[in-house]
Amino acid sequence: xxxxxxxxxxxxxxxxxxxxxxxxxxxxxxxxxxxxxxxxxxxxxxxxxxxxxxxxxxxxxxxxxxxxxxxxxxxxxxxxxxxxxxxxxxxxxxxxxxxxxxxxxxxxxxxxxxxxxxxxxxxxxxxxxxxxxxxxxxxxxxxxxxxxxxxxxxxxxxxxxxxxxxxxxxxxxxxxxxxxxxxxxxxxxxxxxxxxxxxxxxxxxxxxxxxxxxxxxxxxxxxxxxxxxxxxxxxxxxxxxxxxxxxxxxxxxxxxxxxxxxxxxxxxxxxxxxxxxxxxxxxxxxxxxxxxxxxxxxxxxxxxxxxxxxxxxxxxxxxxxxxxxxxxxxxxxxxxxxxxxxxxxxxx
Length: 348
Ligand code: DNO
Fold this sequence. Notes:
Number of domains: 1
Number of helices: 11
Bound molecules: D-mannose
Distance between the termini: 22 Å
Strand order of the largest sheet: 1-2-3-4-7-8-9-12
Number of strands: 12
CATH class: Alpha Beta
CATH topology: TIM Barrel
Radius of gyration: 19 Å
Order of helices and strands: EHEHEHHEEEHHEHEHHEEEHEH
């Protein structure tokens, strides 16, 4: 596997110099965050970013994300133009050495939480999702870090209605049509496409969400049954629901060689539809991280991993989920499990 770390570009206070000092991290996962969703990425900017990353001895082989516009997801408005731009982005990124592109097909809302600074017993802070608090939120007025903030409340209300109108089957159909367009381009460019699951793993605000459980992932992979049509397996997103058996799922899809990127983090499940983000360490949450990492290792996983959201610790002030310290602890913890497996598997 290749251990990577998410970096938000030149303005990220977690500099490349810090990132390269985390033992075992060989590359960053990044994007051109300033380009509006749906547009083509300027070649000069991609080249500059790659050269900058490489100048620190780090690789830029994974992009997270090339965002999919609401027009594409709804197949309305400017979707034809946006699809052409998406394909052009795959081609250009391949030209600059990108091997894997993460994207999602979540309607309107990317990852959703009710609070970003919940104080844990030890004084650290975590992102949390409490069902009763989410029920009180007005989705048209909500923006969370990482979301496309360009929509006005009335536009969000209109989008919600459109997704309700096409329903879950309409969304599956649009996803299939999207994949039929982009996977051949990805194959031709040798770029692995890796869909990120919906987070949390259930429909929210009355709109459908697709990539939430094993049954739906099976359906997704068969929409276009091609090696280049794969997953970003996010243990925290699937693990938000106690119904998902994370170690089983990750082992199954890794054996099929359809996991191209893994986001590894832990989560504390609180009943069916509430959770708190935890430290990566197994005993802090509900997921067995050794079992999860072992399932990847047993399958001979040789692609990209990154630690995912960290808690805010040691008085750090940073983008929620994306501080340096707890994610660095996560990377080192995963590396420790991996090294142990590497060195002991022959002894059994
Ligand atoms: C959250 C992230 C997601 C992810 C996108 C991928 O922290 O994992 O926002 O980047 O869903 O498109």
